[in-house]
Amino acid sequence: QVQLVESGGDMVQPGDSLSLSCVVSGLTFSSYSMAWFRQGPGKEREFVATISLRGGNTYYEDSVRGRFTISRDNARNTLYLQMNSLKPEDTAVYYCAAGFGASWFGSSRARKSGRSYDHWGQGTQVTVSS
After folding, report:
1. pLDDT (tens digit, 9 = 90+) per residue, 10-67?
2. What DSSP string describes the chain?
């Protein structure tokens, strides 16, 4: 049974930092490109960041580039998202997602599409408010 379990969500103030984790089980983690998506209140789910099989390539949504860092530890089957300089507009439920393989990873459209990812976590709430 495939499981993706996110943790680390919290309520913080603007400018604070937060680190999310996603522990994956039931699949060969190193065979999956990984990503973070988020869904804010009243908004569509949107792409946040993605990382290649071995972590050598990362891509970010424009509004988080320079503030967020995605990383992975294949030995621990864990995906991370370090979030710095948080803003109220970062408030959302954050989901990790796993997409098999890498043949599609070269396409920007594919990387950002939820359809490219086969497995999803249940989400963790991040609230940024003063």
Report:
1. 999 999 999 999 999 999 999 999 999 999 999 999 999 999 999 999 999 999 999 9
2. --EEEEE---EE-TT--EEEEEEEESS-GGGEEEEEEEE-TTS--EEEEEE-TTSS-EEE-TTTBTTEEEEEETTTTEEEEEE-S--GGG-EEEEEEEEEBSTTTT-HHHHH-GGG--EE---EEEEE--
The contacts of residue 117 (CB under 8 Å, 6+ apart) are 35, 97, 98, 99
Cβ(20)–Cβ(6) below 8 Å: yes
What CA–CA distance (Å, rounded) separates 43 from 32? 27
